[in-house]
Design brief:
The protein is 34% helix and 24% strand. It is of the alpha+beta class. Strands 1-4-3-2 form a four-stranded antiparallel beta sheet. Strand 2 and strand 3 form a beta hairpin. The longest helix has 14 residues. It is globular, with a radius of gyration of 14 Å.
């Protein structure tokens, strides 16, 4: 699932000032805290859109998430795997 997100709000949330700086900031944060915020962003955005990967100017990955910025400076996030809400599954 790929969603378009407001880059200014993401930069503000993580304290980054650019796309390249965002990767550095995320690498220096607790992975569980970053995952929590990224899941919240993905779950709160119901806008699914067509995204042409030929328009990617730059990208990086963080765990199960990929970040893309296109030539128009739009920011996208892709969640590569789905998460279950249940922490354990029953065998019975």
């Amino acid at each position: 699932m790929i969603v378009s997100i407001n880059k200014d709000s993401v930069f503000s949330l993580f304290g980054a000032d650019s796309f390249n700086n965002l990767e550095i900031v995320l690498d220096n944060m607790s992975p569980s805290m970053v995952e929590y915020h990224l899941l919240d962003i993905c779950n709160s955005n119901d806008e699914h859109l067509y995204f042409n990967k030929r328009d990617i100017e730059n990208s990086f990955s963080f765990g199960d998430f990929s970040f893309y910025i296109d030539y128009d400076s739009n920011l996208y996030i892709e969640q590569s795997s789905s998460y279950d809400d249940c922490s354990t599954q029953s065998f019975w």
